[in-house]
Automatic annotation (TrEMBL):
GO molecular function, one term: peptide binding
Protein name stated in the entry: Aminopeptidase
Domain Aminopeptidase N-like N-terminal: 37-222
Transmembrane segments: none
Cellular component, GO annotation: cytoplasm; extracellular space; plasma membrane; side of membrane
Signal peptide boundaries: 1-18
Cofactor note as given: Binds 1 zinc ion per subunit.
Membrane topology: Lipid-anchor; GPI-anchor
Organism whose genome encodes this protein: Aromia moschata
SUPFAM superfamilies: Leukotriene A4 hydrolase N-terminal domain (SSF63737), Metalloproteases ('zincins'), catalytic domain (SSF55486)
Subcellular location as annotated: Cell membrane
Pfam families to which the protein is assigned, alphabetical: ERAP1_C, Peptidase_M1, Peptidase_M1_N
GO biological process, one term: peptide catabolic process
InterPro entries given in the database record: Aminopeptidase_N-like_N (IPR045357), Aminopeptidase_N-like_N_sf (IPR042097), ERAP1-like_C_dom (IPR024571), M1_APN-typ (IPR034016), Peptidase_M1 (IPR001930), Peptidase_M1_aminopeptidases (IPR050344), Peptidase_M1_dom (IPR014782), Peptidase_M4/M1_CTD_sf (IPR027268)
Amino acid sequence: MGFVKLLPLLTTVVMVLGLPRKEELNYRLPDIYRPADYQVHLNLTADVFTESFSGYTGTVAINFTVTEDTREVKLHASKDDLQIQMVSISGIYLDVLDYNIENVTNILTINYPIGLVAGRYDVLSIQFSGNLSYDEDGFYKSTYKTDSGETRYLATTQFETASARRAFPCFDEPAFKATFDIYITYPVGYTAISNTPGTIVDSESASETIQFETTPVMSTYLLAFVISDFTAAKAVADDEVVHQLWSRNNTSNNRAWGLEMGQKMLAALNRFTGFNYSNVMKKMDQGAIPDFAAGAMENWGLVLYREGALLWNEDSSSNTEKQNVATTIAHEFSHQWFGDLVTMRWWSETFLNEGFATYCEFNVAHEVLPDYKLDEQFLVYVVHSVLLLDSYESEQALESEASTPEEVGQKFGVVSYNKGASIIRMVEHIMGTDNFRAGVHTYIENSKFDNAVPDDLWSALNQHVDNSLSDLPDELPVVMENWTVKSGLPLVHVSRSYSEITITQERLLLSGNDTSRKWYVPISYTTSEDEDKFTNTLPSGWLTPDSDLTITVPETASWVILNNKQTGYYRVNYDDDLWDSIAAGLLKEDFDGITELNRAQIVDDIFNLAMAEKN
Ligand code: BES
Ligand code: ZN
């Protein structure tokens, strides 16, 4: 389990230890500001790259408008990391008494008696100084040792979810998308990289200034910059996207796999989404950071990793690590579309980012590395692990309220990642893969450079449903609603009387009962008589919140198994005779045609049903 999925645990520990409850505070900015472009200039002297000093200076100029008249600007600035030196709005300098940072929410409130007028653009300029942090979050300092034992320093960033405000004042919520022009001044001998390509625009004897090209319209949490003495391996892909893999020089032998997989995964994702990365970005940098809190982070055009998640060496690393590098790259690169180009509106919808990325981590990576059977590994590592967690009554829904930093942290758990990915895979098989991919393309086209909510996804997919294949009981947004807003999963009951199979549902809970919560459940099945066993994952019928389902199988069928390849997000329990017939089938040669994935389903379901005392 990655660091990110441990975040909920950490935040729970903090809450139990009884730190002050912050629920009363409003962490959100009023939705009336519309930043359009930021000019950010950060200035780092040579002292920053030593042990003793971590200060820097900066300016930010934000061209913004408001949707209604107001005398106040509210944005974010970290009180602990930044000192504000001067504030002006469209050339008018403000008194220090006119601005203040709230120290818990880090909301910087600026009073502007002249007032802002709806629709008019003003420029908010702030001069500030800051300190690099040491906690692997925000704009922070990392270190490593050279082969000769000398300590080297680098300055790097980790902004998700709410730490761009630790580097410079900004509207630090995912829906405040804008373009960014970033300038960094740093000592000669170092290299600065950011989301877009840069050009040196000023050179002095001891320092130089780099100007990065204007970014696409994007969220603050996806900005990144690294100022280091790293070196890079480079490759130019067929579509002319320049790939570079940056790491400390003494790891230069470990870059080849990450560089190769980077190009291949990006190409596979271009095919999967039908939207080329090169439409928006010219380059893709990957960086291996010696001190990195998460496993990896999907900053647009500058993906950062902990070293072990990107660097790999044939002689000294394992095959598990090799796979992990490939799938981590697939995950982070898929965010370039699902997260960076199309961003969830707020963290309550984190599954739109992390669920899609986890889906692609296996299912798109599978196209690059078919021998690894990542599509099959998905069932065991992604689906089964979350089916277990989601059987606890306390588990949260895919989409749920999150306001405080603790609640936002809770959204980066197994539900957003694994249930998100499992539900997306379920929809793929409800629609059929080709229609699903067409729908994903529509979703991206409709929401690119913008924010999305789950309904945007389901509606886009709905346009590509072919009801002669899917036989949907209602429109897709209706079918998907309970899967999205309610926690938990169905336990589907199957009983047989001759050729008639009766199918019902209840909520699966490890302890307790809940007969009120129901879903639209796609049912596929295979019998011992079928020629083509377990391959058709399209639904042959539906349970709905109001109706059970009856199907007819040949009387000669010795067994029937529901949920081909376990593409539906549910478990299945059978009456005793059916369980006996399945057991008899499994004992036959070649498991009587019951394929691997459905054998894995049966084993995992049985243990879990036993735990829940359902059989
Ligand atoms: N976006 C996350 C990283 C993140 C999330 C950082 C929340 C800080 C706060 C990234 O895409 C991610 O999910 N990383 C995983 C690895 C991935 C391969 C599953 C991680 O870091 O564990
Ligand atoms: Zn992710």
